[in-house]
Amino acid sequence: MIAALEETWSATAELGRALPPEAWDLATDCPGWTVRDHLSHMIGTEHGLLGDPAPPAPDPMPGHVRNPIGEGNEAWIAPRRAVPGAELVVEFEDVTARRLRQLRSFTPEQWSVPGWSPVGEAPYATFMMVRIMDCWVHGQDMRWALDQPGDRGGRGERVALDRLTSGAGFIVGRKVAPPDGTTVVFEIEGPDPRRLVLKMEGSRATEVAEAPESPTVVLQMPAEQYVRLACGRQLPEEALAAGGVRIEGDHALGASVVRSMNFMI
Fold it and tell me: What is the C-alpha to C-alpha distance for residues 246 and 188, in angstroms, rounded to an integer?
């Protein structure tokens, strides 16, 4: 986990060091957030995990903030909107270096302590797996806005896809809920390809080892498309209209699955 965080943070810092000043204010797929806001968000979260006091929340809150977690994020982001990008990179490198030193000092017992996490109360190690996913995705948010691909095929992407694909059974079984016997196959392309076969059994979508000769529907897409849909970075109708997802078999069912994929955590 420490190696994955270090790899992901290093790739994002390297990206930031090379950016011209005007690139920091490019809009991203997250409403209201620019490239700089994603880095500021990561900076703020790591400060908070170190126990550093949060700045006052802005008043009024911007319109893109919808919940208490968003309010907490905005408290760290707002005061950094006037900070040059180069200075943000220095702060990012400093706070992540402090965090890595902290994590390397942890005993096995500290990794097991339960506490708050975005997925509910969980051991600290589980929280850090979510942090890896979150930081890798935010790094990709920056790269998508900048049209600068990178940080692919490493530890961060592997952890992110592990977590994001773990929600596929909920998406198919609970959100779409097709009849028993339905088989939905996800074929995810990229440097860390995945093939998920989900079969409806007893009103649950269970992952199975092999697909039948003619599955009900197969959804083929690049990993970045899967991530953007799972994390709510793109509207499903836009992805379908642009051909970002190729559907074989029951097209209506496949489109319904795509429309239900926004389930980041």
Answer: 11
Q: Which residues have C-beta within 8 Å of that of residue 14, sequence separation ≥ 6? A: none
Does residue 136 sit in the same domain as residue 41?
A: yes
- For residue 97, give both structure tokens: 């270096």
Buried b (16+ CB within 10 A) or exposed e, 124-146: bebbbbbbbbbbbbbbbbbbbbb
Distance, CA of 257 to CA of 178 (rounded, Å): 10
Query: Residues 6 or more apart from 206 whose CB is under 8 A from it?
Result: 169, 173, 198, 199, 200
pLDDT per residue over 202-239, tens digit each? 999 999 999 999 999 999 999 999 999 999 999 999 99
pLDDT in tens, 95-126: 999 999 999 999 999 999 999 998 899 999 99
| Same domain as 237, residue 152 | no
Dist CA 158 CA 135 (whole Å)? 13
pTM: 0.96
Pairwise CA distance, residues 233 & 43, whole Å: 21
Which three-class secondary structure state does DSSP give residue 46? Answer: helix
Choose the final residue of a domain: 132, 160, 188: 160
